[in-house]
Fold this sequence. Notes:
This protein is mostly helical. It is 72% helix and 0% strand.
Amino acid sequence: xxxxxxxxxxxxxxxxxxxxxxxxxxxxxRLRQIGDEPREPSPEFRARLRGQLLAxxxxxxxxxxxxxxxAGRRPPLxxxxxxxxxxxxxxxxxxxxGLQTYGSVPGDHLYPIKRAAEATLxxxxxxxxERAQRELTAAHSRATEAAALLGYPGxxxxxxxxxxxxxxxxxxxSALLALRHVKRRDTHTPSIxxxxxxxxxxxxxxxxxxxxxxxxxxxxxxxMIDDLTP
Length: 230
C-alpha cells in the first residue's frame, strides 16, 4: 500500500497518469484535445441548431388553431357604432321635441317651454329694431295659436282663446312702440304691411266662431292693425 499522508497536487496527478498504461495515455491525449477545443460553439453547430428551431416553430404554427380574426374585430366596430347611434338618436329626439314645442298651443305640456324660449329671445334683442321684429313674430304666433284652439270643439281649451288674443294685442302694441323709437333715429324699419295682411288673414276668419267677448277682442285688434296701413 502507498502512503496515505502528504499533500495533493495536480502535478502529482499528472505524473501518475503518465506512468500508467495505454489507457491512461489515451485519456491524457483526450484531455489535451478537449483543452485545445474552442470555448464557443462552432458556426456549423449554430447553423444546425437554428435550422432545428425554425423547423419546430413552423410545425407548431401549422398544427396550432388559427386565431379568430372576426371575433377580435367586431367589438371595436360595435364600440365605434354605439356612440354614433346614440348621437343620431339624441339628435332626432331633440329635433322631434323642437317641432312639437314649436307647434304647441296653450294647454299643451310643451307650451311653457315654447314661451320661455320666446321670452329669452326677446330679452336678448340687441336693439329696438330687432326687438320689434321679434315681437311681431310673437304676435303672429299668438294669432296662429288662437286659430288652432278653435279646432278643439267642445274642449276646455276654448278658455285659452281670450287670453291668447289679449297677449297678441299686447305684443303688437309693444312692437309698434319700439318701432316708433326706431323711426325717431331715422333707422330703416321693417314693413308693417305684410304683418298686417298676415294677421288679418288669420284673425278675420275666426270672428264667426268666437264667443261675444272674444269676438269683441278680435274685432278691436283688426281695427288697430288697419290703422297701421294707409
